[in-house]
Amino acid sequence: MYNQGAVEGAANKELGSRVFVYEVVGLRQSEETDQTNYPIRKSGSVFIRVPYNRMNQEMRRITRLGGKIVSIQPSTGLEPINGKASFGNANSEVSELATSGETANSEGNGKATPVNTNSEVKGFAKSPAEEQPKNKDKKGNTMTQAKAKKDAHGDVPVNIYRPNAPYIGKVVSNEPLVKEGGIGIVQHLKFDISGGDLKYVEGQSIGIIPPGLDKNGKPEKLRLYSIASTRHGDDVDDKTVSLCVRQLEYKHPETNETVYGVCSTHLCFLEPGADVKITGPVGKEMLLPQDPDAKVIMMATGTGIAPMRAYLWRQFKDAERAANPEYQFKGFSWLIFGVPTTPNILYKEELEEIQQKYPDNFRLTYAISREQKNPQGGRMYIQDRVAEHADELWQLIKDEKTHTYICGLRGMEEGIDAALTTAAAKEGVTWSNYQKELKKAHRWHVETY
Question: How far is CA 155 from CA 284, 294, 390, in A?
Answer without folding.
Answer: 11, 21, 36
